[in-house]
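Q: Could you fold this chain for me?
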Amino acid sequence: MDVYYILKKLKSLSNEKNKEGMARFGINTQKAFGISVAELRKLAAQIGKKHNLALKLWDTGYHEARILASMIDEPGLVSEKQMEAWVKDFNSWDLCDQCCMNLFSHSKLAYKKAIEWSSKDKEFVKRAGFALMASMASKSKKAKDFAFIRLLPIIKRESRDERNYVRKAVNWALRQIGKRNVNLNRKALKTAEEILQLDSTSAKWIATDAIRELESEDVLKRLAGKKY
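A: Sure. Below is the predicted structure, expressed as structure tokens.
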């Protein structure tokens, strides 16, 4: 499959009703087809991993083509230059999250970029920093606790950001770290209590929501059997 064939396939899957639904959820649909992530995953499975094709798909600028690019790219071939170029193109929370979950979180540069991007001003670049933290916390089975403990002060630092897409990502990162194991659950809850004391509406929402989940019976029960 080449980029032209794939664009033709994406156009054939266009769905205006889905596109309207995407817009209602705050997704930028300026260059979108209205295709579900499930459909994109099916197509990605047919294509397989192809780094150069992923680069070409990204360059088309189409929303679903870019999400598909994140699904078929090869993490080991992703350079820092590519990550910096792509993150600047993020114009929607779902493109940001899909790219971080599908691709960037598997890169050897993931931890470095999570820290760097968390301090940036641009909304979706900052969100990407915390989306990476959340993705690594949920996917990196071999990562040590200290790597995530080092991220907690950053989460606290940025919890005052009132922008909706940022504060939701900060909250996501805190909750995912706190769901890794019992030790990190305690550390995350301590951080949440500290955040709760900050004079910020955003911080109080982040902390309250995180505490509610991390202290829930369901989470604590699952953590009791965690090995990492």
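A (continued): The chain has 15 helices and no strands.
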